[in-house]
Amino acid sequence: MVRLKNRYLLINILYPTSAPATSVSGTVPDALKFYQPTSDKLTPQLLLRLIRDGVAELFGDYGAGMIGGSLQVKYLSPPTSTAIIRVTRSHYRLVWAALSFVTKLPKPLDTPCVIHVMRVSGTIRKAEEEAIRRARESVLRARLIIGGGAQGLLKEVITADDGDDEDASMDGIEDDEDDEMDEDGTDD
């Protein structure tokens, strides 16, 4: 029996042209303005259609056929504008390329955006942990800006990463024990 190996892409939808968000003490810094909540109208099916159309546009029928059976949105959170997408290991670069060329969300939303692939992982668990870590970090950063009083709190939470200290790269590929790559980057 053959085991299908997948990659999980943790993505974040950024809104560079959104109206500036305001807080109690004034305006939020530019770095946080991009991280706006996504409309509830964005569904997993709409995100899949966006990815499939992008892959078909860039790679034609070949690309659409390669990702057709394996592409799946495993998690979508409109409040954090985060999603986890599953695709086969051998074709995740097609999806990543298509996501890099997205400039706006599909028709019902028609909102200008940029999709940032934050992490590519061999397991969904590592992608989830990274999403949680980043969400905590952004909430604490916003609290620091609004409240201004808890300087050590941000450093405490970032360094207490629930026992996961082995992976320091944000955009790297995480290798599983059975997912080894040769030195030239090709799969076994």
Q: What is the third-level CATH name, the topology of one domain?
A: Alpha-Beta Plaits
- Strand percent estimate: 15-25%
Quickly name the level 1 CATH class of one domain. Answer: Alpha Beta
Q: How much helicity do the residues have? A: 25-40%
If classified by CATH, what would the architecture of one domain be? Answer: 2-Layer Sandwich
Q: What average pLDDT do the residues reach?
A: 78
CATH homologous superfamily (4th level) name of one domain: Ribonuclease P, Pop5 subunit
Widest sheet, order of strands: 4-5-1-6
SSE string, helices as H and strands as E: EEEHHEEHEHH
What is the rounded Rg? 18 Å
Distance between the amino and carboxyl termini: 17 Å
Low-confidence stretches: 162-172, 174-186
Structural class by sheet pairing and helices? alpha+beta
- Multimeric state: single chain
Q: How would you describe this protein?
A:
Component of ribonuclease P, a protein complex that generates mature tRNA molecules by cleaving their 5'-ends. Also a component of RNase MRP, which cleaves pre-rRNA sequences. This is Ribonuclease P/MRP protein subunit POP5. Strand 4 and strand 5 form a beta hairpin. 22% of the residues are buried. This protein has helices spanning 30-33, 44-68, 92-100, 124-147, 151-159, and strands at residues 6-14, 22-23, 26-27, 72-77, 82-88, 114-121. The model is unreliable at 162-172 and 174-186 (pLDDT under 50). Strands 4-5-1-6 form a four-stranded antiparallel beta sheet, sandwiched between helices. It is of the alpha+beta class. It is globular and about 55 Å long. The chain is built from five helices and six strands, in the order βββααββαβαα. Helix 2 (44-68) packs across helix 3 (92-100) and helix 4 packs antiparallel against helix 5 (151-159). It has a domain at 6-123: Ribonuclease P, Pop5 subunit (Alpha-Beta Plaits).
